Amino acid sequence: MRRNMKEEFLYYLWENRLLSLDLKTTDGDEINVVSVGNRNFDAGADFINARVKIGGTLWAGQVEIHVRASDWFKHKHQYDDNYNNVILHVVYECDTDKLKIPTLEIKDKFDKSLFHNYNKFVNSKNWIPCEEFIGGVQSFTIVSWLDRMLVEHLENECNDLNFKLQNSNYDWEQTFYQRLMRYFGFKVNNDSFEYLSRILPLNLLLKHIDNEVYVESMLFGCAGFLEKDFEEDYPSLLKRDFKMLKSKFGLKVMPVSNWKFLRLRPPNFPTIRIAQLARIIINNGNMFSKIRDSVGLDEIIQLFDVELNSYWDNHFQFDKVSKYAKRKSLGKSAIDSILINAIVPMLFYYGQFHLLESYKERAMTYLENIEAEDNVIIRNFNGCGVVFQNAFQTQAALFMYKYYCRRRRCLECRIYLLLSKRNSS
User: Fold this and answer.
1) Sequence ranges of the domains in the chain
2) How much is the pTM?
């Protein structure tokens, strides 16, 4: 067992009080754990603010956990001042007596079935380790865990937005523009749209917002779609104006080969999405301010209800007439995707940045009012018997799958904790 033992499993035992009660140090002093403390993800010992009574004396401080006691020296903790307040060293096996800190050896102090169950889970070949069991977990347990997953997901998104805000010199409109642009790519062209947002700043588009041809020519031109000669008047006009604007503002042009069309439905072609984006910018100007000050989800959705230049009624690309003439608008699923991936994280981050809980609550309420997403991961969860009610839950589930299930972080999951106790009993 020692060969397969991992510190993560020992954290799990300590944090969830799964050790037997008759605990003693390797020197024979009785141990009474008053508080296991809190996991520490910064420099220093594994648990902080612990309270442990050792030999009748109550100590407050840090607890460090290792598979072997000698790992203390292997990790050079003896030279690190961050470990000066360790009150107890918890180890699976004590293989040295050189350490002067009270040491607790636990290899015979826990139910071995816990370890065997854990190994079965993390080594499972199933889609997720608990695939066979999660359908039997009470919905209350799953929903409460998803609440935590969603907050962790949005806080994770805040790290990306914080980086973008700093790079934009704390310009909220530019930051939102970059976020919106990325998720206008709808996965296939995310990177290309985000790159376009970096080489073509929003303030330049807003300076020419009264001239829709200029806005469209800059977006299509910087995207690389105006680098050839055209037969039709509309793209020829865009090319002519872009040549002037490119010279005047020193605009960059990205390779048109960056854009992907293969296996996309024509309404999702990047040319159509750029045309829609141009119209959204022309109609709304400083869009994040409108979103921030909106009174509800319906008001935000209206910002994306735009009509394109009639040229696009029978085109999906320049100089290629389509035999199917149809007005092209953003569909419900596309708008939901933008709400979920661009607007909700931005509102949540705005609330976190300004310490305004109301914006964070609004962001999560919006997710509760958006339909559950439909993709292969969500369908797999459905197949296991877990059904989600809204985008709040599907976003949390997608985060859980990516950062917990797929990485086999079962020991940090409330669902696994319940299942392991059930299997043990």
Assistant:
1) 2-110, 172-330
2) 0.83
